[in-house]
Amino acid sequence: MGPRDSVRLDGTALTAAQVTALAKGTARAVVAPQARDRLLKARQVAEQVVALRPVYGHNTGVGANRTTVVPDDFAGRHGLRLLRSHSGGIGPRVPTEQVRAMLAVRLNQLLGAGTAISVGVVDRLEQALTSGHVPPVHTYGSVGTGDLSALAELGLALAGDLPWQEGTGPAPEPLQLTHWDALPLMSSGALTIGQVALAAQELRDLLDRVPMVAALSLAAVQGSAEPYAEDVHARRPHWGALRTAAQMRTLLGRPAWEPPLIQGPFGFRCLPQVHGAALDAMAALDRVLDVELNAACENPLLNLDAADYHHHGGFHQASLALALDQLRLALLGTAGLSTARLGVLAEPDFTGLPPFLAQDRDGSSGIMITEYAAQSALADLRGAAQPSMLGHAVLSRGVEEHASFASTAVRRLQEAIEAFRYVLACELLAAVRALRMRGLPPFGAPELTGLRRAAEAALAPSTADRKLTGDVHAAVALLGGEQWRIKRSAPPAHRPWPGDQRSWRPQPSPVPTD
Question: Mean pLDDT throughout 368-388?
Answer without folding.
Answer: 97
